[in-house]
Design a protein that fits this description.
829 residues; alpha+beta; 7-stranded mixed β-sheet; 22 strands; 14% strand; elongated
Length: 829
């Protein structure tokens, strides 16, 4: 039957063209994302930067610490402490040793990423003086030549405050770092922690001296000491998180559409199958022929799709780079390596399976028809619902509603994870697509009710056409349903979650005003002290740090915020569950309820600078995962410099009752001027916080929605072209009955509008289920919160989907009207 299948494909290639296009696009989509994911697992080595000229670098590290399992900026306890003085002396005994310190040091008006180093380490990164001399006094610095000139007075912002320095010399800028160099003594004052040591003695002797207390980096391993190692990991983590989500959602959508399209193409050919049965073809032969056709189409379409996917992988990578998700250097190089061949082979196999699977179900039903029933079966569209389809519909309905209810009641925090929640939004939408053939009849009658009294036969013909061809109507409505349903659910969920977070933050912050960084990564303690000294001002400026707790043989890290307890109570409205913030003192802490600790119990922690302490639990408060921190007394502020940079990310300000707001706020603005901080109201802070917090989530979900919409838009056009092109006999009957070309076009356009309306209604029903589950989850997490719907975008998606459906109808109808009516009647179906 392979020869027969090949001949039928040659004769009816137009009928299979839509299936081929859908399959090519689906395979290309799966292949491109697969290549991108696999490429990230085998990235080329990045060049060594800061220590390219150093023979060996000693860096404090924990061999059991995997940074990929921790948030960016979190150091192991060993790395937080840095190089100890004892280890420094041991390494110095092997030969010349140069100390490196890395700390926040930003020129006024410079980028936030600027970093400070002691001058002696500059030569190992390829820095060379282009003018002037090295710094020799505490008030001198060396900067890149594009930042200032020798002799200039510059303002430098550090964790210790804002100070004036003189530029003693300049160096050639490098692309991987923007550094400010200080004398060794000044760098030690600004940053007591030693980041690493450059060891110039024999490497074997250095390793012997270091032992297991630190890592000795040589060769390519020296890149682990570069700052770009951490930033690259963050961007690659974002990519690795986003692409599988996009691949799962878009891939599932593609497979569903392709399978539906292929099955629809086979259903359209029932008359041919019926004729084969009447001339003696056995059911087995019919099924084999259809499977062979699917196999041939699958091989050709999958091969083309894999090639397009390989070419499109770099386009996808460029898109992620443009969205600041992937690193700028990330590229996909076509090769014969397994990381390229494996996803291409997988995509090819997926294409074959989808093609054969999509054809098999319809072929099995057509092959089971008895010869005497074949012509009757082929002449009409059997719109009855089979027991199997009804059972599948019930399972889909229960699964879609049940899954959403489980999220709303049993797992509300899953909505906070884009990786989990984006995929879960597909369940009700796909369930609606499965249910479509069961509800096409009632929906058609409902939507056509307003047109019962319309003059002319068009409304009646449209209604009866949809009712007598329910499978065709459901198949053509499916792409509209997927497009509108998935995009509506994704975009509404994104906006609603953002609004809920805004409300949650607004409820937690009780202060009237706030400080936020302005062109800097944080606010220095010096600025906080100046504001706190203003009469009538209460300011809480939590400084982010890390605390380490020991679990059996390993340490676990948690975020801590160093803050004045008295100011905390006046500026933040923590939902205290047990204990009281009034009990906070120098030896106690307040922790989130998620930590599972009782008030009065002891928390043994180790601070980043090595201090070990037991803190009494004074209070527990309600918090979401990711917001569960320990509030620490201010005596731990010095250790925060070891953990992070010692800067406050935000500061909350409340004015004393009776204070002159105009006069006090003017003093605050004067105090923060030039200090890298902006004075704002609470509402302005909430707006800026939410914009920052929701950026990555919005990028993930909106980019996923964009890919889905692009594929589904093509699927809409493709499916309607297939469906309308196959209805030449319907068109001929209308023409023979006396319908004018204008009336024929009007009929088909009206039918496409009805199909689109059915798809939109089903999409709204599926989205309603998703949003009901989302509201229930958000209510548990944040209390009463609104569901935000981006009406304009959703309406635009629905309108574009409808226009594409109309275009997919008008084009084949217009082409057919140019032929003679007798040709329509004589054409094959």
């Amino acid at each position: 039957m392979i020869r027969v299948a090949f001949q039928t494909l040659r004769a009816r290639w137009v009928s299979f063209l839509g299936t081929v296009v859908a399959l090519v696009l689906g395979v290309a989509q799966v292949a491109a994302m697969g290549v991108l994911i696999m490429t990230m697992l085998d990235l080329p080595d990045r060049p060594v930067e800061r220590f390219a000229g150093a023979p060996a670098v000693v860096q404090a590290s924990d061999p059991d610490w995997d940074p990929a399992h921790h948030d960016l900026g979190i150091r192991s306890l060993a790395a937080a402490r840095g190089i100890s003085s004892e280890l420094r002396e041991k390494v110095a005994a092997t030969g010349e040793t140069v100390v490196d310190r890395a700390f926040y040091a930003q020129l006024e008006g410079g980028p936030e990423s600027q970093v400070g180093h002691p001058w002696p380490v500059a030569r190992f990164g390829g820095y060379k003086l282009t003018d002037g001399k090295e710094p020799s006094g505490a008030e001198e610095v060396v900067v890149p030549s594009d930042r200032a000139r020798t002799g200039d007075k510059v303002t430098v912002l550090t964790a210790s405050g804002v100070a004036q320095y003189t530029v003693s010399g300049t160096v050639t800028p490098v692309g991987w770092e923007d550094a400010v160099f200080f004398t060794d003594a000044e760098a030690a004052r600004l940053s007591p922690r030693i980041e690493s040591l450059v060891a110039l003695g024999p490497v074997a002797a250095v390793r012997a001296a270091v032992g297991d207390s630190a890592a000795v980096l040589t060769g390519q391993d020296r890149h682990k000491a570069d700052a770009s190692e951490a930033s690259d990991r963050e961007t690659l983590d974002n990519t690795i998180t986003l692409v599988p989500v996009m691949a799962s959602v878009a891939g599932t959508t593609a497979i569903f559409v392709v399978a539906s399209t292929f099955a629809f193409a086979v259903v359209q050919r029932r008359r041919e199958v019926a004729l084969l049965r009447t001339v003696g073809a056995t059911p087995k032969q019919v099924r084999k022929m259809v499977r062979n056709e699917a196999l041939l189409v699958g091989i050709v379409a999958s091969a083309v799709g894999t090639v397009l996917g390989l070419l499109g992988a770099q386009l996808l990578a460029d898109m992620l780079i443009a969205m600041d998700i992937s690193p700028e250097w990330f590229t996909v190089e076509p090769s014969l390596h397994w990381t390229i061949l494996a996803p291409l082979a997988a995509a090819f196999l997926v294409g074959l399976l989808v093609a054969v699977g999509g054809a098999a179900a319809a072929a099995r039903r057509a092959g089971g028809i008895r010869p005497i029933e074949a012509l009757r079966e082929a002449s009409v569209d059997d719109s009855g619902v089979t027991p199997g389809r009804a059972l599948l519909g019930v399972i889909a309905l229960v699964g879609g509603v049940g899954w959403t209810a489980w999220i709303a009641v049993a797992s509300p925090t899953s909505v906070l994870s884009p990786t989990v929640y984006v995929v879960s939004l597909m369940v009700p939408v796909l369930a609606a697509a499965v249910l479509a053939p069961l509800v096409v009849g009632p929906l058609t009658k409902l939507l056509m009710l307003p047109f019962r009294g319309a003059s002319g036969p068009t409304a009646m013909l449209v209604r009866e056409s949809a009712l007598t061809a329910r499978r065709r109507t459901a198949a053509t409505a499916a792409p509209v349903l997927l497009t509108v349903g998935l995009s509506f659910s994704l975009l509404a969920a994104t906006d609603s979650l953002g609004a809920a977070r805004d409300n949650g933050l607004q409820n937690r912050v009780s202060s009237q005003y706030a400080l936020a960084p302005e062109g800097t990564p944080g606010i220095s303690p010096q600025v906080i002290e100046r504001v706190a000294a203003i009469p009538g001002v209460h300011i809480a400026a939590p400084i982010l740090t890390t605390i380490y707790t020991k679990d059996e043989d390993r340490y676990e890290e948690n975020d801590g915020l160093v803050v004045d307890p008295a100011a905390l109570k006046k500026t933040m409205d923590l939902k205290v569950l047990e204990g009281s913030l009034d009990d906070l003192d120098d030896n106690s802490t307040a922790v989130a309820d998620l930590w599972g600790m009782d008030v009065g119990s002891k928390l043994a922690v180790e601070m980043p600078d090595g201090e070990k302490v037991e803190l009494r639990i004074a209070a527990t408060y309600k918090a979401l995962r990711g917001e569960d921190v320990a509030y620490l007394p201010q005596r731990f502020a010095p250790s925060a410099v070891y953990a992070r940079d010692g800067l406050a990310r935000r500061a909350y300000i409340t004015l004393a009752s009776g204070a002159d707001h105009a006069a006090v706020t003017a003093q605050i603005r004067k105090a923060v001027a030039g200090g890298g901080a902006a004075f704002m109201t609470r509402d302005q802070l909430v707006a800026s916080e939410s914009a920052y917090a929701r950026h990555l989530t919005e990028v993930r979900q909106r980019s996923t929605a964009a890919i889905i919409m692009l594929f589904c838009f093509i699927a809409i056009l493709n499916t309607l072209l297939m469906a309308t092109a196959d209805r030449r006999r319907d068109l001929a009957v209308l023409r023979m009955a006396g319908a004018t070309p204008k009336q024929v076009v009007r009929f088909f356009v009206a039918e496409s509008l009805l199909v689109s309306a059915i798809g939109v209604v089903l999409a709204l029903a599926a989205t309603a289920v998703n949003l009901a589950g989302l509201w229930g989850a958000l209510f548990q997490l944040f209390g009463t919160t609104p569901i935000v719907v981006p009406y304009l975008i959703v309406i635009a998606v629905a309108v574009v989907s409808t226009l594409l459906a109309v275009i997919g109808t008008v084009l084949p109808v217009g082409a057919a009207l140019r032929a003679r009516t007798v040709q329509f009647l004589g054409s094959r179906e």
